[in-house]
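Example for tutorial group B:
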């Protein structure tokens, strides 16, 4: 996910899609009555995701004692799909527990696996900031239970069933009052919800019910590319996921709209075939790994990143991943082996959708800051912001905000 920031800069009007380009399949969640994990899954099933395919993927998880049921229902006269998860096991799990379950499950579609990990990672980071602990030490309570695991992984499997390439969402409606939790009564919206959605557009309602759950907020925080009105699409399907109760004044449902991004939103977008290299290392220092990532990017890698994991015999490991053009693989593989001393690498082919982007330079008090501008947002270059912030005596985030606003106004 590209984390939503301030209002995105408007780029030069886009050209039509290149001949042969394939339109990415998009999902837009309309959160006019909030969002919860069961509502998200229900909305996708109502829009046509294959429930048998979702169940089959979930049964691959090394977690038993659950059943997934669906039923058609009505909310304020609107037909919707209600999801029920009957689970014997509601144990508290840590982020490390959940990561091990998801990473260790064989046969999950890779994109569904990565999306599931991103959702729980967002939850762990938010809970860690709230409680002042490291994300890996976070103990999940309500969201650690099997029902939440089924809701999140099931939603990611449903996205895969529908072939969703990119997720968007509307402004998010929130309730008020208090909500119950393992820690007692908490303000509504819950602290985790606000932490997860701190960059999303929010609107309050007078309803004293929990419209957005931490699970729903985590799905938005991890999966949504940008928030706002429905993008220009060719409609393929729509559906409604029902919440657990009727609420006065509006149907308690989450609307899902599925379609292909319109050609006007594509500028030479086409699928490209790339390669991901991976290696697990358990005896390389952080300094060496940081140097390796910088070296890989300098040597032509399209991206490089590190993910902590638990390896054999319970050893903590770092998973090195490198995204590369096929012709650059030999040199980048040699660099990983030389710098880490690893004895081998894995590689697999991936497909990438690349939206158009360009650079705008702005001046902040005599300091040049580059801003990357795409169709849906603008992002100031961190290194430029850090240098300008040091010279101007301002926080980096403030410099980034000013640069992105200048880029937006210059593009307007």
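The residue assignment follows.
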């Amino acid at each position: 996910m590209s984390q939503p920031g301030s209002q995105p800069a408007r780029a030069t009007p886009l050209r039509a899609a290149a001949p042969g380009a394939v339109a990415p399949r998009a999902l837009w969640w309309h959160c006019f009555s909030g969002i919860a994990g069961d509502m998200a899954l229900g909305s996708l099933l109502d829009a046509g995701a294959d429930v048998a395919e979702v169940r089959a993927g979930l049964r691959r998880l090394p977690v038993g004692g659950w059943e997934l049921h669906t039923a058609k229902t009505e909310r304020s006269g609107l037909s919707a799909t209600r999801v029920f998860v009957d689970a014997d096991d509601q144990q508290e799990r840590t982020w490390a527990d959940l990561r091990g379950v998801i990473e260790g499950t064989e046969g999950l579609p890779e994109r569904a696996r990565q999306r599931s990990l991103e959702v729980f990672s967002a939850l762990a980071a938010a809970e860690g900031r709230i409680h002042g602990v490291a994300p890996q030490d976070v103990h999940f309570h309500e969201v650690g239970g099997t029902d939440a695991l089924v809701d999140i992984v099931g939603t990611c499997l449903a996205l895969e069933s529908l072939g969703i390439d990119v997720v968007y969402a509307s402004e998010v409606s929130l309730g008020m009052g208090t909500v119950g939790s393992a820690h007692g009564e908490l303000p509504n919206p819950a602290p985790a919800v606000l932490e997860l959605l701190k960059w999303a557009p929010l609107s309050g309602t007078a309803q004293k019910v929990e419209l957005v759950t931490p699970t729903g907020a985590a799905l938005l925080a991890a999966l949504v590319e940008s928030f706002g009105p429905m993008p220009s699409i060719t409609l393929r399907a729509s559906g409604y996921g029902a919440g657990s109760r009727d609420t006065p004044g509006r149907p308690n449902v989450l609307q899902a709209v599925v379609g292909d991004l319109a050609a006007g939103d594509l500028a030479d977008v086409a699928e490209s075939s790339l390669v991901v290299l991976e290696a697990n290392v358990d005896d390389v220092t952080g300094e060496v790994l940081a140097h390796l990532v910088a070296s890989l990017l300098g040597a032509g890698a399209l991206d490089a990143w590190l993910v902590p994991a638990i390896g054999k015999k319970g050893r903590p490991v770092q998973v090195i991943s490198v995204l590369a053009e096929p012709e650059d693989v030999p040199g980048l593989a040699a660099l990983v082996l030389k710098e880490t001393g690893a004895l081998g690498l894995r590689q697999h082919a991936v497909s990438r959708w690349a939206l158009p982007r360009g650079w705008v330079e702005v001046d902040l008090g005599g300091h040049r800051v580059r801003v990357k501008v795409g169709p849906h947002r603008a992002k100031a270059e961190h290194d430029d912001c850090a240098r300008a912030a040091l010279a101007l005596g301002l926080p980096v985030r403030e410099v980034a905000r000013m640069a992105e606003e200048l880029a937006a106004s210059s593009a307007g």
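Residues 1-21 have pLDDT under 50 and may be disordered. Compare this with the pattern of hydrophobic and polar residues in the output above.
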